[in-house]
Write a structure and sequence with these properties.
Keywords: Signal, Transport
Radius of gyration: 24 Å
Order of helices and strands: HHEEEEHEHEHEEEEHEHEHEEEHH
Mean pLDDT: 89
CATH topology of the largest domain: D-Maltodextrin-Binding Protein, domain 2
Low-confidence stretches: 1-7, 19-35
InterPro entries: Bact_solute-bind_prot3, Iontro_rcpt_C, SBP_3_CS, Solute-binding_3/MltF_N
CATH architecture of the largest domain: 3-Layer(aba) Sandwich
Family: Belongs to the bacterial solute-binding protein 3 family.
GO molecular function: ligand-gated monoatomic ion channel activity
Pfam families: SBP_bac_3
Helix content: 40-55%
Strand order of the largest sheet: 5-1-6-15-7
Strand content: 15-25%
Amino acid sequence: MKWKKWLALSVALLMALMVAACGSSADQGNGDQQAASAVEAIKKRGKLVVGVKYDTYLFGYKDPADNQVKGFEIDLMKELAKRMLGDENKIELKEVNSKTRIKLLKGGDIDLICATMTITEKRKEEIDFSRVYFMAGQSLLVHKDSPIKDVKDTAGKRVATAKGATSGKNIQAVVPNVDLKLYENYADAFTALRAGQVDALTTDDSILMGMQQQDPNYKLVGEHFTQEPYGIGVDKKNKDLLEYVNKFLDDIMKDGTYDTLYKKWFKKDPPKDLPKDAVQKSPTT
């Protein structure tokens, strides 16, 4: 009789393992299906959710006059919503900064990041990036009467930048004895510069140009000491969304929409040699 009991136990165990395996395969299948249908999920929801800046003039800036978020990246994402969902207003613009944007993307709080985000090798380990849509370079913003003319002049000087950005490490690599001051965002860093609490502000020249337009008492100085290609951030599991975004960028660059938006915000023609693929080049890479 013992052999019958052992046989029954063996059959039961085998059945349990088969059920578990099937369940695992089903879960994996569901996961693959979800990962393959990010675009459809957005269409079903009827709204594109994008992480953008609220403090970066020309790119993503909340205008206190009407509380509307405006800028080049905002217009790009509205155009994406228009082509994906048929209406540029079917979009939710969530504020992000250098510290929060990847966390919010990976947590599913946003579909995309379009927030002056430099493509770096380290970030590519965490998320996917679209093709390059803007090329910037790190520079300095100072008061028009400042003696600082180049990055080397910041030795021993107080220089502001935003927490979580690559700008701080870059300038420290060039000028190890710079007195780096970190702020929550670039708006706070610019406020500190205008208040005389720091001697300079460093980040991408594209961001600094927006600050200069807001206050002509400040100027950009020195040569670029990094290459900063911007890409749209996409969760690694959403390959179909990445493909959709890349096609969108290719399309608007071919049909003239990109040129129109670029000239609207930067008052000049876009570069003709913008690469599709690039990563940050800096003193730390």
